[in-house]
Design a protein that fits this description.
alpha+beta; five-stranded antiparallel beta sheet; three-stranded antiparallel beta sheet; 35% helix
């Protein structure tokens, strides 16, 4: 994925009132979207495969989109999240971060809601130390006419692994239309690191290398800085 493509998918968010725009902050939206809509990346791959097998269309697509939970929008909550992130990011860069950064599913879903292309397509669920993505994806733009008017709806469970400053995100399980997708398709999807585009962003890479860990703990994603020396 090119930087231009990432820019087209990145949400446009105004800075909180009274704050000055910060330079070199855009990549954190890439990280947020990576953590928040990894489901979508996996679904695009699966949808592409489904397009080539008519026998799978009936079992794994539907004529109606799946209703997603309503995002509880709050400008105050989003501003607080943005401010908390900006403070953490700056402290990590200066080597003074003493506290972890936590992001709940609500935080990530509010971030997703800033993107007009994604707000009605994906929701994040974090529970019992696991991250899930609930999705509904229209197939009207597919070349195959039989897919027009159909949707792929489902749930993906993700694996997050962070080691030596490198983030790997993979698909552990994937269900479409209430059914587990065929294992041979799942294996194709599991070959991909859904966070690989972060490796192409020098600022993101530098930041990640200043973290001790990224972990899923109960109902939060937690970023842990290296201990202060």
């Amino acid at each position: 994925m090119t930087d231009a493509a990432l820019d087209s998918q990145s949400p446009v968010v105004e800075h909180p009132p009274g704050s000055k725009p910060r330079r070199k902050r855009r990549w954190w939206f890439y990280l947020g979207i990576t953590l928040g809509v990894l489901a979508l990346l996996g679904i695009v791959a699966v949808a592409g495969i489904v397009m080539y097998w008519r026998s799978l269309i009936r079992n794994y697509t539907t004529t109606e989109p799946q209703p997603l939970p309503v995002v509880q929008q709050s400008d105050l909550d989003f501003t607080a999240f943005y401010t908390r992130w900006a403070s953490f990011y700056e402290a990590v860069g200066e080597g003074t971060a003493a506290q972890n950064f936590q992001a709940t599913a609500g935080d990530l879903n509010r971030l997703i809601a800033q993107n007009a292309d994604l707000k009605d397509r994906v929701r994040v669920i974090i529970t019992n130390n696991q991250v899930f993505g609930q999705f509904t994806f229209p197939l009207d733009k597919a070349k195959q006419r039989e897919l027009h008017g159909r949707h792929i709806n489902g749930l993906v469970r993700l694996n997050l692994n962070f080691e030596d400053g490198w983030l790997t995100v993979g698909v552990a399980e994937l269900h479409a239309n209430g059914k587990p997708i065929p294992r041979w398709i799942l294996k194709k999807v599991q070959r991909e690191n859904l966070a690989k585009d972060l490796d192409k962003n020098p600022e993101a890479t530098a930041f990640l290398h200043q973290l001790e860990a990224i972990a899923v703990e109960e109902d939060q994603i937690v970023l842990k800085p290296h201990a202060r020396r």
